[in-house]
């Protein structure tokens, strides 16, 4: 290992650790606002890895305001509705999405890797090629009265370099180094007994209208979720409870390299059948399957420490129930921009962002633990383990609507309020 330490003399306004969704959208927003930014990412190349993600209208609004409207249509699918089914294939609820629901902006489903590459291309084109530094793993940082100093190591060469910035944003995911430095005793992510399988399958023909999400089963037992992420690509995920729901830490680090196998999953979903979709074939035909414990972390008492703060999964990792992870990270970027607009590139700006976003995301994290909108699946399954003759015998329409409305309130999905919200730029 080389023991080289080079101090960069140019101090940028904001140094972003992590080139994922949250970090890249933050870079675009802050650049548009007139601030200098630099993104440091530990990987050597941004490959199209990962699986599907969903973007809610409140996050799509921000992306449209950044000029990404037409390109989102190229990399994703505008969602029309979500259908909730019992484990026996009986329809429980139909939820309209995006434009069809009355929003001015659509809901999108897309492959995370394709979306990340789109954002990375825009950062390099708009902010500059040198604004993104790859092969840069954070190892330490120090806050001073007027700036923050961060040390990075190149995992390939061992070279160490130090960067200075007015502020540092930790957007480095659920396994965040920034968060670990701020909270060294926190430990690993928390696990509550469920395993998550994910896969992507190429197909000649999408099911139904090609714009529908399917949610089926019981998120507290076995739940299967699938949705198109491209013209010929379907994403699927399956949650399987394998242990008691006691809180414990996991010995497995969640990442994209934990390979799963269809033969381990198929016995759990053998009873799940839909007239229009062969679930077994969908799983067996997957290009790749990922398997890891479904984890999150407890909410923190604060994200901001002097000139350093957290954003996205580094700040508020959450269960995938409700499909809000990426969307909440984009809302973080928006709120950070507004806070800097009011207080400048200052610790006060970071604290204002913390005060506004942390309570809101804490609520979303806790709501996701209660399964979000998918709570309706749990209720029906636990009240009626067999096929029901009439849904009204199991749950009322009013109860279903209340659950859906409550989760929308928690996540910031108020149609009228969002449609009247002024543009960020």
From TrEMBL:
Q: What is the lineage of its organism?
A: Eukaryota, Metazoa, Spiralia, Gnathifera, Rotifera
Organism encoding this protein: Adineta steineri
Question: Do you know which Pfam families this protein is assigned to?
Answer: FAD_binding_3
Keyword Oxidoreductase set for record = yes
- InterPro entries in the record, alphabetically? FAD-bd, FAD-dep_Monooxygenase_BioMet, FAD/NAD-bd_sf
Q: Specify the superkingdom.
A: Eukaryota
One molecular function GO term is:
monooxygenase activity
FAD-binding domain mapped to chain residues? 12-365
What are the entry keywords? Answer: Monooxygenase, Oxidoreductase
Recorded protein name is FAD-binding domain-containing protein
